[in-house]
Amino acid sequence: MRWTRSALIVRSVLAAAVTTAAIAGLAGSGITASAAPAELKTVPFEVSGELPIYPKALWSNGSSGASVRKVEARLVQLKLLDKQYMDNSFGTLTRSAVKKFQSSKGIPPIGYVDQNTWTKLSAVTHEPTQAELFPPAPVVNGKKLDARCATGVALCIDKSTRKLRYVVDGVVKMQLDVRFGAQKTATREGGFTVGWKSRNHVSTLYDSPMPYAMFFSGGQAVHYSSDFAARGYNGASHGCVNVRDLAKIQALFDQVKVGDKVIVYRS
């Protein structure tokens, strides 16, 4: 056993020596050898044509806070970013907007804000006003809707008033009566987006029609309910947001897009 262990050690040493010699031979012949291929990266700037160097980032992917919101507000002014994505967080959409701005100004599209980008962005935009930074929430019958409904396109669904309001850039375009799930199958509250739509959907779980369904949280969707139209608030859904006005939800279905916000809250 001792002899076998010693033989293995000697074999490893010899293998290492052979490898070293092979590399030295290649070097002597002018051929460069490497253990693994190096990852090549494209960089926006060069020094002496050799050394890559990146400008210092002021705000980049993952940054957050009031300063990021001001950058986003300026990008909104240039229509490079939709107002609904002005959220204090430097994410994918903000990065894409920054790259578009940089390309338009002849700056390498590095996707983050350095001093040069910030100087040029500041020169072609104005200091954001308070209303631009924090658009006021829509007001209906003297009462404010959820602040998340103030920007972009949103299905603003208020459990307290049992109303769904279709809001575009702070303006209420349509209002519908809605019904929610019973206590054991409650409609979830929070901020969501429309994940997918189905015009003639039928529930496989309950074997019931769900026409004009706009799904926002798992199996929960906004959809037309003939039961709600017939019985009103005497019944309840299995968690979905029921609409009883067929003509209105037909029109709403055609206007809402996948990715639009869905805000379910209590006022």
Automatic annotation (TrEMBL):
The record's annotation in InterPro entries points to: LD-transpeptidase, LD_TPept_cat_dom, Peptidoglycan-bd-like, PGBD-like_sf, PGBDSf, Transpep_catalytic_dom
- Active site residues according to the UniProt entry: H223, C240
Instruction: Show the PROSITE patterns listed in the entry.
Output: LD_TPASE (PS52029)
Q: In which pathway does it act?
A: Cell wall biogenesis; peptidoglycan biosynthesis
- ATP-binding listed as a keyword: no
What's the superkingdom here? Bacteria
Q: Residues of the signal sequence?
A: 1-21
Which UniProt keyword terms apply here?
Cell shape, Cell wall biogenesis/degradation, Peptidoglycan synthesis, Signal, Transferase
* Domain L,D-TPase catalytic positions: 153-265
Specify whether Kinase is a keyword of the entry: no
| Record-given protein name | Peptidoglycan hydrolase-like protein with peptidoglycan-binding domain
